[in-house]
Write a structure and sequence with these properties.
Number of helices of chain A: 19
Oligomer: heterodimer
Low-confidence stretches of chain B: 1-18, 37-77, 112-126
Number of helices of chain B: 5
Order of helices and strands of chain A: HHEHHHHEHEEHHHHHHHEEHHHHH
Low-confidence stretches of chain A: none
Largest sheet of chain B: 2 strands, antiparallel
Helix content of chain B: 40-55%
Largest interface: A-B, 93 and 71 residues
Radius of gyration of chain A: 22 Å
Distance between the termini of chain B: 62 Å
Strand order of the largest sheet of chain A: 1-2
Largest sheet of chain A: 2 strands, antiparallel
Shape of chain B: elongated
């Protein structure tokens, strides 16, 4: 039976679900970010944190709050990993090694969720539930807060660079948005067969006469926020290809929906925050366009995989679960790398060369299609500024976006943002591929080996977290290199974005004039899409040519 | 994967624990990390037996046939020096980021808000070019 019909059917179903949910959630998010009222539980939290929720922070204070919160989070999670053997519910597991504990702490605080370890055999229930899952919530909330700050910066006029309050944004997003949706999603996943318990590993006898240990745990509760917060760190080593995390095609579709819904809704909320819904729709259209292109390309590559075995199996089935098939695996892969999720339901290392290349390019785009829960929006808005500026240079229009002038300093900040990740990816890959400790981790030689290393560094630097597999990164060298990439890849762009937001907030909002480039129509959507693709092409084509493109041609 | 690869590779030896999907791939990686090779010669698409995975335990991470991994004893707790090192790396990185915030704040703060930067001409105030005019 051809997989084309179900492939198209699942995409149609997903599109319908998103079309229904995004406007509603977008309105709710906008209200969350702009409401003056505090809930009771939020007031208690502010008291515990000893913060004034009504203080309007300057961009500098906002940035320092993000950094301070993240520093404390990393150190706490690092300590949790190193002291695991002394803690309850550790399942008798030893402490994580230093490099591994640090990598894991950085990974979850930066919303990357890169995992060098096998979750069910390295991390006990306490660390899973109170360390990693908590970070799944708050790291996502921190990203959304930064995106909201940029939206406010564009919406405000001459207010001295004040962007709102980080702590208020963090707490509100956690309590009002992430917790309720994750709770409902966890119940849905449990109903779909995902496990949720606090049991010790169970030993069972197989039909073949062997024995097998089955690890349960608080899986559904982590799975829900893992997708919803575009985190991606799996409870099990096999991540969302594990039947306890993602048992059926239906749960697979629910998980894909969860990882896409907030990034799209944030774009909708952006339009409402800046007072022009069509601005948000334009940004969302670019996200959707890039995602559709990506889904189509990966699905085509995997369903038409070259060779006799793929032809007989109806697609390139190596590394994929038969209960999903090629189309659902391709959909998940495109969605997880288009967002900053990094969860996988198939092994990307086993994808065809073009399919693996597309998911790599998705991450190189900066994960703006639709991107992380917060980073997707602010990444796209930065590219929108680039688009306006380039268009202005080409046709002589005023370089301004939403009434804010794009001057020298704004462009400096944008350039620093755009260059940060490519520098980390290319320099990090070069270090990994030249150091003997780095090369030792590669499974393959030639173009595929290059792709393995580049994919790992790209995933870390863009805070995606998906693994190409085939590369052994559980070593001090790779844990340290990738940890640094995650740290700098997360917080340098955040600092530049908040500085840009402060700059915009300090400016006077100018009315549109005849010289203003319209930023809400199809022309702008096309320009922004082109700019996103050109920036990636100019930056990454050489390394792509040596990796997936060379492999495709060989 | 399970059905396809079974059909392709044949049934495993009696009593062997069968790994499929990602645990199989990772188990093979562990074998290769430890300097061994898949005795069945199936490669990454093959079935891995308990015996093949237990080739050696020389690696940093050892996986057993259920796909579980455990860190070696020597790596379980390697003292406070490395912990201190990673703590230092983290703190120094954040201090540098905080300094960057300060530098950017000073750099951005030296210009009155809303004034058009010198390098960005305010084209809105210029007369619109005639159609077809070359600027």
């Amino acid at each position: 039976v051809s997989e084309l019909a179900p492939a198209l059917g699942q995409v149609a179903l997903l599109a319908l679900a998103l079309a229904l949910a995004v406007p509603f959630l977008g309105r709710f998010l906008a209200a969350t970010f702009t409401s003056a009222k505090h809930l009771g539980v939020e007031r208690v939290t502010y008291r515990l944190l000893r913060v004034d929720p009504d203080a309007d922070q300057h961009w500098r204070s906002y940035a320092m709050s993000v950094l301070g919160f993240s520093l404390v989070s990393i150190l706490a999670l690092f300590a949790l990993g190193r002291l695991q053997q002394h803690l309850p519910l550790s399942l008798g597991l030893p402490a994580l090694p230093s490099a591994g504990a640090w990598n894991t702490a950085v990974s979850f605080v930066t919303n990357t969720n890169w995992q060098w370890y096998s979750g069910e055999a390295t991390v006990g229930h306490l660390m899973q539930a109170s360390g990693l899952t908590v970070q799944n919530f708050v790291s996502a909330a921190a990203g959304m807060a930064v995106a909201a700050a940029l939206a406010r910066g564009l919406a405000r006029s001459r207010n001295g660079g004040r962007l709102g309050n980080f702590w208020t944004d963090l707490v509100r997003v956690t309590f009002r948005v992430l917790l309720p949706i994750a709770l409902v999603a966890a119940v849905l996943l449990v109903a779909g067969g995902v496990v949720q318990n606090l049991l010790e590993p169970q030993t069972v006898h197989t039909l073949a006469g062997g024995t097998q240990q089955i690890t349960g745990g608080p899986v559904a509760s982590q799975e829900a926020i893992k997708e919803l917060g575009t985190n991606g760190g799996g409870f099990y080593n096999a991540n969302s290809s594990h039947p306890f995390e993602n048992p059926t095609p239906l749960t697979n579709l629910v998980e894909v929906f969860l990882l896409l819904v907030i990034p799209f809704a944030m774009a909708w909320a952006f339009g409402l925050i800046v007072g022009d819904r069509r601005q948000g729709i334009a940004v969302m259209s670019v996200m959707a366009l890039l995602l559709v292109i990506s889904i189509a390309l990966v699905t085509w590559a995997e369903m038409a995989g070259p060779g006799t075995a793929p032809a007989l199996a109806g697609g390139a089935m190596e590394g994929k679960e038969v209960r999903y098939g090629t189309a659902a695996s391709a959909l998940f892969a495109a969605a997880t790398t288009g967002t900053s999720t990094g969860a996988v339901n198939a092994m990307h290392d086993s994808f065809t060369a073009p399919g693996g290349g597309v998911v790599l390019v998705n991450m190189m785009l900066g994960e703006i299609a639709p991107g992380g829960v917060g980073s997707g929006l602010y990444g796209m808005l930065v590219l929108a500024v680039v688009t306006v500026f380039l268009s202005g240079l080409m046709v002589g229009r005023t370089p301004e976006y939403l009434g804010k002038k794009i001057g020298q300093k704004e462009i400096w900040l944008v350039a620093l943002y755009v260059l940060t990740t490519p520098v980390l990816v290319l320099v990090g890959s070069a270090v990994g591929l030249t150091a003997s400790a780095g090369v030792a981790g590669l499974q393959e030689a030639g173009p595929h080996g290059l792709s393995e290393a580049v994919y790992a560094v790209t995933s870390a630097s863009n805070n995606n977290g998906s693994a190409f597999a085939g590369i052994t990164t559980g070593t001090p060298f790779w844990n340290t290199l990738l940890g640094l990439c995650m740290l700098l890849g997360r917080f340098l762009p955040i600092v530049f974005v908040l500085a840009l937001a402060g700059r915009f907030a300090a400016q006077q909002q100018l009315p549109e004039s005849a010289g203003t480039l319209p930023t809400r129509g199809p022309l702008f959507v096309g320009l922004l899409t082109a700019v996103a693709l050109v920036v990636v092409a100019l930056t990454y084509v050489p390394v792509l040519a040596l990796g997936p493109i060379a492999e495709s041609l060989s | 994967v399970r059905l396809d690869q079974r059909a392709h590779d044949g049934e495993p030896e009696a009593g062997a624990a069968v790994l499929v999907g990602a645990p199989r791939i990772r188990a093979l990686e562990a074998v290769e990390d430890a300097g061994g090779s898949d005795p069945a010669g199936h490669g990454r698409g093959g079935v891995v037996s308990r015996r093949s995975v237990a080739v050696k335990e020389a690696g940093r991470t050892v996986r057993d046939p259920s796909g579980r991994a455990r860190t070696s004893t020597s790596a379980a707790f390697d003292g406070g020096v490395t912990d201190l090192l990673y703590t230092l790396i983290t703190v120094v990185t954040f201090v540098l980021l905080a300094l960057l915030v300060g530098v950017l704040d000073r750099w951005l703060g030296d210009e009155p808000a809303g004034r058009a930067p010198a390098t960005a001409p305010d084209l809105a105030t210029e007369p619109a070019p005639a159609p077809g005019a070359v600027r």
